[in-house]
Design a protein that fits this description.
This protein has 3 domains: 48 residues; 77 residues, no CATH class; 30 residues, no CATH class. The chain is built from 7 helices and 3 strands. By secondary structure, the chain is mostly helical. It is 58% helix and 12% strand. Helix 3 crosses helix 5.
């Protein structure tokens, strides 16, 4: 809903809707009301509240075009491969790279939903290629089990530290007897 305020001998129209705000001053109240209706209609249609002739609009369009082009390049399977290469250079393991790609895929999916875009799910498209190149893979499995001496040390530590929860040694014994591994 627009606010029309008299400021001196002029009228200021101010439109606030869904977190967007814009205001403009006019000589007549009728001009202010007409402009406010036009802006509200534009916001309802999904257009921005920023005047297209303003410097702010110009900068927003420049930023959008710059980042959209970067975003489009990075959303191709080749972009995901370059992400993988840079992660490997940093020393990331296969599982860490796989988790990063999964997280980025979730962000990609939610942003497409929020922006109401119909996009192919780039991580899903890139995954077969990444599987083939083998930069992603399962985490390393732990095959080693604690030795008897290590288990005794754990129980001794809990005996020495009575301030800790005393049920933990019992839980460990139950887990060991029932073959729980995690």
């Amino acid at each position: 809903m627009a606010s029309i305020l008299k400021i001196g001998d002029r009228w200021r129209a101010q439109v606030r809707q869904r977190g967007q705000s814009i205001s403009k001053t006019f000589r007549t109240k009728g001009a202010a009301e007409a402009w406010a209706r036009e802006i509200e209609g534009g916001i309802d249609k999904g257009q921005g509240a920023v005047d297209e002739k303003s410097n702010e609009d110009y900068m927003l369009k420049r930023l959008e075009s710059h980042f959209v082009m970067r975003w489009r390049r990075s959303c191709r399977p080749s972009g995901w491969s370059s992400l993988r290469r840079s992660a490997r250079k940093r020393g990331a393991e296969q599982y860490a790279i796989d988790m990063d790609i999964s997280k980025l895929g979730t962000v990609y999916k939610h942003m497409a939903s929020l922006l109401d875009l119909r996009l192919p799910h780039a991580p899903s498209i890139a995954r077969p290629r990444l599987d083939h190149l083998q930069p992603i893979g399962p985490g390393k499995h732990r095959d080693r089990r604690p030795t008897c001496e290590e288990i005794v040390k754990i129980f001794e530590w809990f005996a020495e530290h009575s301030e800790r929860e005393q049920a933990v040694p019992d839980v460990i014994r139950i887990a060991m007897k029932s073959a729980f591994r995690r």
